[in-house]
Design a protein that fits this description.
With 467 residues, the chain is mostly helical. The chain has one domain. The longest helix is centred in the middle third of the chain and has 37 residues. It starts with 6 loop residues before the first helix and ends in a 5-residue tail after the last helix.
Amino acid sequence: MPHTFTLSNFRREAAALWRLAWPVLIGQLATVGMGVADVAMTGHTSADELAAVSLGASIWSIVLVTVSGTMMAINSVVAHDVGAGTLGKIPHAVRQSLWKALGVGVAAMLLANLATLLFDYLYLSPHVQRQASLFVHIISIGLPPFAAYRALYGYSTSINQTKPVMAIAILGLLFNVFVNWLLVFGNLGLPALGGVGCAVSTGLCMWLMLFAMLAWMRAAPAYAATYPLTHWEWPHWPEIRSMLRLGLPIGVTYFAEVSAFGAVSLLVARFGVVEISAHQIALNFSSLTFMVPLSFGIALITRVGQSLGEGDPAKARFVAWTGVWMSLLFGVLSALGIVLFRDQIARAYTSDPAVQQLCAHLLLFAALFQLSDAAQVATSCAIRGYKVTRQPMQIQLLAFWGFALPLGCWLGLAPGWLPWTPARPMAAAGFWIGLVIGLTVAAVLLSWSLQRLSLARAQAKLRPAPN
């Protein structure tokens, strides 16, 4: 049987996946590095400013990742066309994806600003509440260009052009750090805006990345055969609806996971500045390590989609599980690294001794879920390569809102109206235990789903056609 598992086949496919994934990885790390820079640079101003940025970033992250997932439909659409050799369909799909991005980006901007009303119901000081709300109001100007950028990002990676997204993300990171340095601390005679300076920097950076991507596509020969911006095209609603049907479940899937983490940030806020700051640092670093299996996953959408477009589901199955095993191997390494260097990680983010101590403790929980987090993102992306998006959505909703958040609230808040609760609230640690359990549930169910789907498609191809 073709594409059977042998060590040489695994090495060959792993090498192909890595060639596609490593520029995506560097680009993803640079993108997440913007958030790391925001938190780390603000952490050296004051604990109040760090708490405000942490809360504002929790809203921003939920909306940003949901937009990213909703725009991801273009990845599998273009990958299937590349595999099938129908390159002429790609420019139209990308143009319609940009129209979709306009609507998604504006809606996301409005929702992000409305979400700041949640801060009225938290136990926050007036200064922290005011700064967190202002952070979201300003940074939301970056959501429409971000949605358009993710449409072009998906198009580029699916035609095997991943180095441009790497270069543009590095440019964005450098811009973000420099403008943060100017505005957070008030260098070169500019006013010291604290956390608000991070919002200005990141919002502007989204526009810079969009224009840089458009310029690269215009100049690079690799895009010539499928260049989408050759002429004006009005929205084609059937095409947009089709991509929404494919993309919205991915957006909801991303929302289910990130909103659970974001809800935890909002709930932890009631325990004070030290708890929320330590929690946000541990979460921020975990999101950094998460970029590695996510990059494998983005490469998997392309590789699996192209294999299916070629009419080779056996190859798609082999590609999918190779990517899953690569992600799991990284999960083992990242867990060991977090356990060994958790104190150094905490000190790199903040100079506050109390925040450092609690952060090092929370990082132990982050180490626990490295394997399950790697497995769930790789399997869900592989499934999306099959253009199946609703089942991963249902699994993620169950895992995070059926397990992770309820268990976290039970352990973290210890509500007295339940028949049995911990003797005292476990605060941030209780919520992290819930997250570990939720990620494990997601990993198990998504692995089972990928196994059934990939095997069924491969076996269907082998069956003789009816007479």
